[in-house]
Amino acid sequence: MSIMTMNTSALFSASSMKMIIVVVVAVFLTSSSCTANASLVQETCTKIAKSDPNVNANFCVATLNSDPASGKATNLEQLGMVSLRICMTKATNLQPRISGLLQQGTFDQYARNCLNDCLKFYSDAKDSLQSAVGDFKVKDFRKANLDITAAMDSSSTCEDQFGERSGAASPLTKENGDFFQTTAISLSISAMLR
Length: 194
Fold this sequence. Notes:
Elements: H1 2-51, H2 57-65, H3 76-104, H4 109-137, H5 141-162, H6 173-193
Helix pairs in contact: 1-2, 3-4, 3-6, 4-5, 5-6
């Protein structure tokens, strides 16, 4: 019986050691993968901020990390797709925000016209970004740059039209600025892939 106990305990011990090794290797691979992915985001954002004065590196890192898929991106193409999804989400979320402003009834006709235009601009931006996603899938980064630029123009056109009339202030300045910067991130990633 003591031989049986000893063999079982030796077997249990070897089995436990194998399990511990598997767990340690899995933890190491997971942590090194997360570090590599965090490094990809950080390195990409640092490069973008150095080459584009419109992009703040901290904003870039926070924006890309806001989507959990950025932690799984292993290359620039995957990170570019993440950035495009974030842009599409921002454009989508701006539409109800603008509609809500229009329903408040606190704006004069000029501002209401501007807001209606902005609603259309952001709808067009979503279409352009959807095209850019397709461009990324077929690795046509030149075309993706054009589509992303078209989406980016939505935010600046929306913001600029408020300034065309003295005393008119855009209620979307922050949102337009964030969208512009977010699309600038996507545009820079696309340009790096060309």
